[in-house]
Amino acid sequence: MKMQAEVQTEVQTSAIRESALNKSQKNILCIVTLAWIFDAFDYLLLTYIAVDIMKEFNVTAAVFGTVTSITVLARLIGGSFVGVIADKWGRRIPLITSMIWYGIFQFISGFSPTFTILYGLRFLFGLGMGSMYSVGVPLLMETVPSNKRGLASGLVEIGFPAGGILASLLYGSMYSTGGWREMFYFAAIPPILLGIYAMFTLKESKRWGQEKSPTQSMEKVPLLNLFMGKQLWNTIHSILVNAGFLVLYYSISAWYPTFLKVEHHFTVAMVSVVTILLNLAAVLGSILFGYWSDKIGRRWTITISALGTMIGAPLFVMLDNNTLLYIGAIIVGFFGPGGVWSINASYTAEHFPLRMRSAGHGLTYNAGNFFGGMITPVIIGLLSAHYGFGAVMTTGVLCSSAFLIIMAWIWKETKDMDMSI
């Protein structure tokens, strides 16, 4: 009995040790999370300075919305191409390169003399942005213990709300009307410094290294394999569910600062406060739902958080009651960019086997972003002229939330999936 108890204690101790994050895993988690925060920080700044850029270059909301769309297209191209490279030669170098790349083109964007030049530079920026997520997430999901994947995903997915908070703080404290170029310069510094830090501290995925054979060739992991055999439905589902994720996100965030200024006549300080509230709630929701997803599974995480988002949707755009608007922003932030998005990293990565995970993640996330993120900002920009931003944004939130619930229940539960194969 004593020997049996000792063996059981040793097994339990080993399990605890295996489930805890070591120094290298924590470093990868920090780098990928910070990379996504800075990525979002750069990207979301555009929503705060949109009005002044439109004025300077004399373009409409619908035309300006195509800047987001072209960035999304670039993310699809960059994420897919670099994802294949990462499956062939490893995750580390593509991740480092992508961070420095998007930082450089963020900086150069501030020198744009015309709208056309800005348009082209945002395309180049998007190539790096798409690459970062498609490589960084598989690296992290292959590194952390299986019972911590949901939590790790939730921590990574604080990236966009945390980046939104940084953008709000910068906008609220330093922005002067018309001074949009300086925002680009400032936002470019963090990702470049992070990329340099990662050069010296980031390690390659051990699981990728173990699976990689010396004779493996690029032909064994082409994008075409994602659409063959049993993998076909996984790939299609991942594209569809990511499209739902992105329609939800862009319906909430793409035009929210503009909506508050144009339809609610908020000052710079008031816009900053409301968006900070929404994003703080999202950070909390992402961490909590990410943790819960390891307990209750991905299906119920999506279902509960999507329902919560639907409840808050009509409130966060209320025009005649500031109190309800603040409450709605908190509810929508907690359940939408927080709860729903908490599992995006783990859920997407769990659709693919190791040999094609980075390519699959890069293609399907960014393909979903192409359909959901490229079209949504333009449609909202167009329809807002007739129906107002509030009504169009609410419709997008309600429809995408319902769609995500359906998608969650027509696919398998994956929280216990083995990421080593």
From TrEMBL:
Single Gene Ontology MF annotation: carboxylic acid transmembrane transporter activity
CC annotations in GO: plasma membrane
PROSITE patterns: MFS, SUGAR_TRANSPORT_1, SUGAR_TRANSPORT_2
Bilayer topology annotation: Multi-pass membrane protein
Top-rank taxon, per record: Bacteria
Annotated compartments: Cell membrane
Protein's UniProt keywords contain Transmembrane: yes
Residue intervals of the Major facilitator superfamily (MFS) profile domain: 28-414
Keywords assigned: Membrane, Transmembrane, Transmembrane helix, Transport
Transmembrane parts of this sequence: 28-51, 63-86, 93-111, 117-139, 151-171, 183-202, 232-252, 264-288, 300-319, 325-343, 363-383, 389-411
PANTHER family named in the record: CARBOXYLIC ACID TRANSPORTER PROTEIN HOMOLOG (PTHR23508:SF10)
Identification of the protein by name: MFS transporter
Source species: Collibacillus ludicampi
